[in-house]
Amino acid sequence: MALMNGAQYIESLRKLDIKVYMFGEKIENFVDHPMIRPSINCVAMTYDLAHEAEYEDLMTAKSSITGKKINRFAHLHQSTDDLRKKVKMQRLLGQKTASCFQRCVGMDAFNAVFSTTFEIDQKYGTKYHENFIKYLTFIQENDFIVDGAMTDPKGDRALSPSQQPDPDMFLRIVEKRADGIVVRGAKAHQTGSINSHEHLIMPTIAMTEADKAYAVSFAIPSDVDGLYMIYGRQSCDTRKMEEGADIDLGNKQFGGQEALVVFDDVFIPNDRIFMCEEWDFAGMLVERFAGYHRQSYGGCKVGVGDVLIGAAAVAADFNGADKASHVKDKLIEMTHLNETLYCCGIACSAEGSPTAAGNYQIDLLLANVCKQNVTRFPYEITRLAEDIAGGLMVTMPSEKDFNSDLKVGSMTIGETCNKYFKGNGKASVENRMRILRFIENMCLGSSAVGYRTESMHGAGSPQAQRIMIARQGNIAHKKELAKKIAGIKE
Ligand code: SF4
Ligand code: FE
Fold first, then answer.
1. Where are the beta strands (DSSP E) in 211-370?
2. Is 379:151 a contact under the CB 8 Å cutoff?
3. Distance CA 114, CA 79 (A)
4. For residue 209, how far is its CA from the centre of ligand 1 (angstroms)?
5. Do the beta carbons of residue 13 and residue 40 sit within 8 Å?
6. Active-site residue 258, yes or no?
7. Are 117 and 111 spatial neighbours (Cβ–Cβ below 8 Å)?
8. Is the CB of 296 under 6 A from ligand 1?
9. 286-476 is a CATH 1.10.599.10 domain
10. In the chain, N or C: fewer CB atoms in 10 Å?
């Protein structure tokens, strides 16, 4: 099958019987639901851009399995050049959507599962790598989006999976049959799960032998029996349900998506299993997936940052503050922070190396430094954007007020709003509203899920990166360097 475009992708979702719940009700047509559709439009962009000649080199690649042209989101990285192009593609999509476009979790899972299954097979003589290559070929041929699902609900954080009072706090194998396994549990905060054709499941932490029922990796269609999803609500989300809403949405077209994905005794056939009780490889899979996704943030968040910096500059123009030296300096500071994140994304890619299976992996230390910076800099960029925008971005009346004919005294409500909220006259009041609502959306509204809180917790919370930085930082080597130059002999 040829590469899908955005419209074909959206139509392909309609054919799936994905069980979605929101506000305590089943959603029969999630594709056209006003709260969900912006996140689908965002994924559709990953399909549309693959057809534009200008972006072909970033958005597509030659499959290492079939030799055919595929969407880069389904690619196994073959070089450090591929790793860099991945980051550039993500920056581009952040710039086009100002949101989380969701398709990266699958790409990062493909690359981590590919290399880990190879090493499991080498040790145990299993057939997981063969299973996975067959599976990924199917994904590439159909140009599917896959939710790479790692994070379990985790229950009591002080206890391991097998110690939890409720054994379902981590997804687990509940039955082994001749033809496959049955799994139960859930994956939380799943990016793009409802918009994905398939789910690729991985364990969420390193495990001991006692936890082996939890060391499981497999893939299933998103509409398989026993699988359902509960939509995660976002700040200001019900604005999307208001009739005729436009300006108040800030970003009308695009948005992100997270959901709780529940496995209520789901059967997984043998040929779709990529790990089954090999507990000693759970940590490797987690580390690799997390490493790739921490690299990803040096692309996607930078692209969204580009848009936010641009929006702050437009707001300054409309306020008549664009010549103020402190505003210019704040824009420089935002750019400096944003490009620092990009440097990290590019650096961990350029320093990548081949795995035993042959695909390329990022430099793990640098990828973790990248994500650690992402837990901080978007917050500072946001602070500066709010500083430049001014308080009006959160105190402005609704667009219905701006359009109201209701007469109060000598003017209508609409006339009053338009009189008192004009800026320096270079921009219409409507355009001023638009840019401020857009900044509100990125800093506090539904896109803030992706730009701020997801920058903090997505691909692992800050402490997860600090653990990896401690492991990879090689303090012993640094001590030796110091001792040698200081002339210390022990
Ligand atoms: Fe992709 Fe970024 Fe969203 Fe992760 S947070 S899925 S890297 S856009
Ligand atoms: Fe994410």
1. 216-221, 227-231, 258-269, 273-276, 353-354, 360-361
2. no
3. 15
4. 32
5. yes
6. yes
7. no
8. yes
9. no
10. C
Q: Which protein residue has the closest C-alpha to ligand 1 atom 1?
A: 104
Q: Is the CB of 458 under 6 A from ligand 1?
A: yes
Q: What is the pLDDT of residues 205-233, one digit of tens each?
A: 999 999 999 999 999 999 999 999 999 99
**Cβ-contact 102, 43 below 8 angstroms:** yes
Radius of gyration of the chain (CA): 24
467 Cα: distance to centroid of ligand 2 (angstroms) = 19
Q: HSE-up of 15 (CA within 13 Å, CB side)?
A: 8
Amino acid at 21: Y
Rounded distance between C-alpha atoms, residue 410 and residue 392, angstroms? 25
**97 C-alpha to center of ligand 1: Å?**
12
For 224-260, write each residue's pLDDT tens digit: 999 999 999 999 999 999 999 999 999 999 999 999 9
Nearest atom of ligand 1 to the alpha carbon of 103: 6
CA proximity to 106, closest of 17, 180, 11, 201:
201
The residue whose CA has the least distance to atom 2 of ligand 1 is: 300
Determine whether 287 is an active site residue: no
Q: Return d(Cα 21, Cα 32) in angstroms, integer.
A: 14
165-175 tens-digit pLDDT:
999 999 999 99
Residue nearest to atom 7 of ligand 1 (CA): 296
Per the CATH hierarchy, to which homologous superfamily does domain 6-280 belong? Butyryl-CoA Dehydrogenase, subunit A, domain 2 (2.40.110.10)
Q: Is the CB of 319 under 6 A from ligand 1?
A: no
Closest C-alpha to ligand 1, atom 6: 102
Distance CA 66, CA 79 (A): 17
